[in-house]
Amino acid sequence: MPQSIWKGAISFGLVSIPVRLYSATEEKDISFRQVHRDDGGRIRYKRVCSVDGEEVPYGDIAKGYELPDGEMIILDDEDFANLPISSSRAVEVLSFVPAEQVDAVQLGKAYFCDPTGGDIKPYVLLRDSLEKADKVAIVKVALRQRERLSMLRSRDGVLVLQTLLWPDEVRETRFDFLDQDVTVRPQELAMAESYISALSADFDASEYSDHYREALESVIEAKAAGREVKAPVEQAPDSGQVVDLMEALRRSVERQRGDKAAAKAPAKKSTASKPASASTPAAKKPAAKKPAAKSGADTVKPARTTAKKSGRAKTA
Q1: Mean pLDDT for the chain?
Q2: Which residues, 6 or more positions from 127, have their beta carbon under 8 angstroms from its beta carbon?
Q3: How far is residue 50's CA from residue 73's CA, in Å, rounded to a whole number?
Q4: Separation of CA 147 from chain center
Q5: Taking residues 132-161, what's their average pLDDT?
Q6: Number of separate domains in the chain
Q7: Could you list the residue range(s) of the whole structural domain that residue 234 is in?
Q8: Cβ proximity of 7 and 20 under 8 Å
Q9: Are 19 and 10 in contact (CB under 8 A)?
């Protein structure tokens, strides 16, 4: 478990639930360093003042806000300390709302809430109450010296605090195409719905992976081992550009149905092999009559009969 980034309490009415927050996600991107191409030496940067050209120690660096006219307003720690921010050790519950009413575009970083008190009953009570009511809690919390609107929900038995963007942080949808009058024909809508239906399935995150990162890791491993780096095989481009919308939708539906049929082909092949295994015991039946045979001629006749039967079976 990574290091906790926050420690405080959730205020559930008059009940206080002490918790620690842990990052619920981690970036899997491969990080690079800027280096000198000739010798691999790392490139380092100096903090240099643009006025006097001197390097500035980290302790002498302050936060500045540049006004439209270019004037710089310098803020010190005292200026931030006097801001009306809520306690940095409390998660204040504001309301309980249906989860579907929270716009996904507002969702930010998620944190696991780990109960720290000896009595975890208040934690379990809030978790179970949210699940039974099928709602999430809208809360306020101060993280890294900034007040954040957040959402508290239950996931796999753990309370998750997920930050939300403030309403004025979401840009308005101002695009010219929204003013255009476009009519979609019923046939086009029906074909699009067919394609959606063909691709419909339950979401399983484990079915998806970052192919770019996997390929990049292979390149790094190959270069580290001194092996030749092989270029990936590119997929053949789609044959012909389809201009007609209905034709493009029709081909999309057919391709998806073909992919599904191909995916089911192995299962059908294994099913078709069952009759062959079932016919094996039948071929052994004449051999079971051999002990009853009194002569070699009698032994040959059942074998001929069996051959004829197997020939009829092949004809059928």
Answers
A1: 81
A2: 154, 157, 158, 159
A3: 16
A4: 28
A5: 94
A6: 2
A7: 181-264
A8: yes
A9: yes
